Amino acid sequence: MNTQEALYNYCLRLGDNALIHAHRICEWCSNAPFIEEDLALSNIALDLIGSAQCFLKYAAEIDGKGKTEDDLAYRRSERQYFNYLLVEQPNGDFANTMARLLLMSAFDVYLFETLATSKDEAIAAYAAKTLKEVKYHLAHASDWVIRLGDGTEESKYRMQKAINDLWLFSGELFEMDETDTILINEGIACNLHDIKPKWQNYISSVLEKATLNLPEAIHMVKGGKNGLHTEYLGHILSEMQYLQRAYPEAKW
Amino acid sequence: MAIDTQLDLWEVFIQNKSGNNYIHAGSVHASDKKMALQNARDTYTRRSEGTSIWVVPSKEIVASDPNDEAMFFDPANDKIYRHPTFYVMPEGAKQI
Q1: What is the CATH number of the domain that holds B48?
Q2: Is the dihedral of CA A29, A143, A141, A162 positive or negative?
Q3: What is the reported pTM?
């Protein structure tokens, strides 16, 4: 694998995480507990779509085969998607969605903080823009996890269950492979082992404030980063890609 | 009557740029100060309408009684000398 191929993979992963997470959060549109939260979730999803667009567009440029970000979003199949398993997990109840957003946006904040100083100028610029957005996502998720964890008996039970249920997908966030290694050596990518302790500290502090327990170490599942997904991604893609698959080249 | 499950009501004031007055934008529901600010941000500043937000619990606002309208406001009507209309506005002063 050369640097260019590694950079292409890296941008697909960044773009796919944002796109699939955005799609999941979009499913709350008109279903949130109240209208202010509905708008907040839609805003978060739109931020993520903007970020996905940046990274997929850049991936298409690096690939240099005349594709667009839309080709990459709508014409790849499950095995060609490289998002983490965490972001494709179903919304579940509101606590579950907030737990997923907490785990992912805490990761995003540390990731994009590092990428903002990447030697690749495009990645550094997109990361700086995305960082402002994910900081807000993290604040939003943290507040809800604390509020629900330190809330009623019911909300505490659900919040703890949500964290426990998603915990096995958190290990994959810090997995690294050849793509990462090549780009870390070039000063382009983020060394995920460096940000892991920061992420752990942050999550622990939020759970403590929320009077929740940090889940015990368990077996972590992985695969998404290399195109091996849970059953849920196929269903997301069938909905997301339906129009483009049924009416190729469709224009507004 | 249905129980209101929409949390407490807060009034939102937005400043569109530094130095300008805060203008009432509307209201949001929220359970605490922090949530009120976030909800106000998401509801009223999505299209770059503001640079600063105030939120105030609606129940803390003291409003004049419409029945007192005559007593409160009519006496001002016939006292034109209370208006500084006899001064010439300096050119270029737009925010007076």
Answers
A1: 3.10.20.520
A2: negative
A3: 0.89
